[in-house]
Design brief:
Helices cover about 25% and strands about 25% of the residues. By secondary structure, the chain is α+β, with helices and mostly antiparallel strands. The protein is globular, with a radius of gyration of 30 Å.
Length: about 475
């Protein structure tokens, strides 16, 4: 360690938004002196950095505590033991006290921190972005329009540039792609628009800083951001370059054939519905009874449909949708313990499909692997078919690995990742194809993920595979 006490944002390699500047000292410690109630940084022989300057006395008449609040500020408090009315702040960093938007990532990725009175903070989204959770603005934001800024058919005309007065995106050298000097407002804006890798920029005096994604620490804080002009590139909603498929240039007769098939299918469907609802057909239909649920020969709990409705708040907490049904989140009490679950509600269930459903339940229930979510139970009640899994949250190192592999692919450095594996190198083309398909399937935006038919074609080599779009914006 360098002996410097630093506060920095979790998960981000920033230089720190507060530090004691004691890096020339060795073996430093942050101490609370119980005799004086002062906090300070000490080295082996003396006080290297005093923090608390004054506390109420006598010391024994007060409770003392120090904590980092939800805005990222280290504070020391006192509370009178008798007739105390609450905790009172006796110390906090002077720079943060003067400008509460200084802590990094206080409003999340693509969030914008403002403080009109330099006492309270307000988290909003940068132009072109939407809140991840409107009820908790500090969770950050995501792009309102998904687009690859450097797509082959993209140009500056696909974007607009918005200026934000007295604002900045400080994130150290990591965020700065390039610095251009000397320039004015017009020249800085043009430099950002002409560079597809630049999603934003700031003009400080006559120096233009081009910024890469993701945008962190966006803030308007006086006086530190006074006279700084920030720029942000916003995709035009009606002029986005679409993600092209290989079959886009197919002959018009294919579209005609698809139209005829669609019309035929709709006609057959309409005729079937009409016959089923005709009064003469009702006696024959009513004679058919729904299959009686059968037991499953494995240790799985059979839930009632009403239980799962209550656990998922009436199937309102939707996680996603697949080809065979919709997945909802919920909470169940199992063995006197609350467990978060994911409930998959199967759709298009037909009467003779009960056997196939029970077979699927048995196969999944007997499958155990560390990379597969565990099947907790099922529901086979009347025409309701549901599978209940443990809920696996998308947190951890997988986000870092996906980002690292994608960056290597886009930079043409995929070979360097597996240079030590001779078996992979023998069939590198096949490995590269599988990596690209995997990245497409892991894209956080469901609209960009390929269908299983498309995945099969890409793996077989009958369909071309483009480089996946940049997904840094979705990983935070």
């Amino acid at each position: 360690m360098d002996g410097n006490v630093v506060m920095s944002a979790y998960k981000f390699a920033d230089p720190g938004y507060w530090y004691t500047a004691t890096k020339d000292n060795k073996n430093v410690s942050l101490i609370f002196n119980q005799s004086t109630a002062f906090m300070y940084v000490v080295n082996q022989t003396s006080i290297a950095y005093p923090m608390t300057r004054q506390v109420p006395t006598p010391i024994g008449d007060y409770y003392h505590r120090a904590m980092i609040n939800d805005h990222g500020t280290l504070q020391q408090f006192v509370h009178r033991k008798e007739n105390g009315s609450g905790w009172t702040v006796v110390w906090e960093p002077e720079n943060i006290k003067a400008e509460p938007c200084l802590p990094f990532n206080i409003c999340g990725v693509y969030g914008f921190c403002t403080s009109i009175d330099n006492t309270t903070i307000n988290c909003t989204c940068l132009p072109g972005y939407s809140p991840r959770d409107p009820s908790i603005p500090s969770k950050g934001c995501y792009p309102a329009t998904a687009i690859d800024f450097c797509a082959p058919n993209s140009s500056a005309s696909n974007f607009s540039l918005e200026e934000i007065e007295n604002a900045d995106f400080p994130n150290g050298d990591f965020a700065d792609m390039a610095r251009i000097t000397p320039v004015d407002v017009e020249a800085c804006g043009k430099a950002i628009m002409d560079d597809c890798f630049a999603v934003a920029g700031v003009l400080v005096e006559s120096v233009c800083y081009k910024k890469r994604t993701p945008l962190l620490n966006a803030r308007r804080s006086f006086p530190s951001t006074s006279n700084i002009v920030a720029f942000i590139k916003i995709p035009k909603a009606n002029n986005n370059p679409p993600i092209q498929d290989k079959d886009d240039d197919s002959p018009s007769w294919i579209a005609l054939l698809a139209g005829l098939l669609l019309c035929s299918t709709m006609t057959l469907l309409f005729a079937t519905i009409t016959i089923c609802h005709h009064p003469l057909a009702q006696p024959y239909i009513s004679q058919k009874q729904l299959p009686v649920p059968k037991p499953v020969d494995i240790n799985l709990k059979a839930f009632s449909f009403q239980e799962l409705l209550q656990a998922t708040n009436g199937l309102r907490n939707k996680l996603g949708r697949g080809a065979f049904g919709t997945v909802y989140s919920g909470v169940l009490t199992l063995a006197a313990e609350e467990v978060e679950i994911a409930v998959k509600k199967l759709e298009k269930v037909i009467e003779h499909g009960e056997k196939e459903f029970l077979t699927e339940v048995q196969v999944i229930g007997l499958t155990h692997h560390k990379n597969l979510v565990r099947l907790v139970g099922f529901c086979n009640e009347k025409n309701h078919r549901l599978l209940v899994y443990e809920l696996m949250k998308n947190e951890g190192n997988e986000l870092i690995l996906i980002d690292w592999v994608l960056c290597s692919v886009r930079a043409g450095n995929l070979l360097a990742i597996v240079s030590h594996d001779s078996e992979v190198l023998e069939d590198f083309c096949r490995f590269e194809r599988m990596v690209l398909v995997g990245l497409w399937c892991l894209c956080p935006n469901p609209a960009l993920r390929p269908s299983m038919n498309k995945v099969t074609q890409m793996l077989e080599g009958t369909s071309e595979i483009d480089v996946p779009p940049s997904i840094e914006a979705y990983l935070f």
